[in-house]
Amino acid sequence: QVQLVESGGGLVQAGGSLRLSCVVSGRTFSSYAINWFRHTPGQEREFVATITWPGGDTYVADSVKGRFTISRDNAKNTVYLQMNNLKPEDTADYYCASLVRDGITPAQAMGAAFDEFDYWGPGTQVIVSS
After folding, report:
1. Closest by Cα among 38, 46, 31 to 99
2. How many CB atoms sit inside 10 A of residue 56's CB?
3. What distance in Å separates the CA atoms of residue 109 and residue 33, rounded to the nearest whole number?
4. β-pairing, 32-39 with 58-60?
5. What whole-number distance in Å separates Cα of residue 20 and Cα of residue 2?
6. Are the C-beta atoms of residues 70 and 60 closer than 8 Å to each other?
7. Per residue in 69-87, pLDDT tens?
8. What are the pLDDT digits (tens) for 9-58?
């Protein structure tokens, strides 16, 4: 079993920054990806960013490119989503999820269906006020 727990959400004014964390615990795998998704009620769940193990390759969605950065701290088993210059349209619940697959690439992780992801965190809420 793997557990993912997000934190770092909150209320911020437009133009501000937040750093979300996704702590990964439990069983370890040699090759996998951690994705960030976001979801607003009434809208489709949206891919935000991905990072792979062991290579650390990343990909960020075009909608947030230049403002959001994904990174990891191996020693802390934590994936971060640094969000800068936040906009009201970034308001959503943010989730991290893991996909275990040998040799997975960022493109594969970005294109994977939601039901392919093995584990999901409970989410953290981000509210950006105008």
Report:
1. 31
2. 11
3. 6
4. unpaired
5. 19
6. yes
7. 999 999 999 999 999 999 9
8. 999 999 999 999 999 999 888 899 999 999 999 999 999 999 999 989 99
Average confidence (pLDDT) over 107-122: 94
CB 70 within 8 A of CB 81: yes
Cα–Cα dist 40/85, whole Å: 19
pLDDT digits (tens, 9 = 90+) for 22-35: 999 998 888 999 99
- The phi and psi torsions of 37 (rounded to 5 degrees) equal -125, 165
pLDDT of residue 39: 97
85: left (phi over 0), alpha (psi -120 to 50) or beta: left
Please report how many Cα atoms fall inside a 13 Å half-sphere around the Cα of residue 103, on the Cβ side. Answer: 0
- What is the structure's pLDDT at 29? 86
Q: Which of 22, 11, 24 is nearest to 80 (CA)?
A: 22
Pairing of the two strands 68-73 and 58-60: unpaired
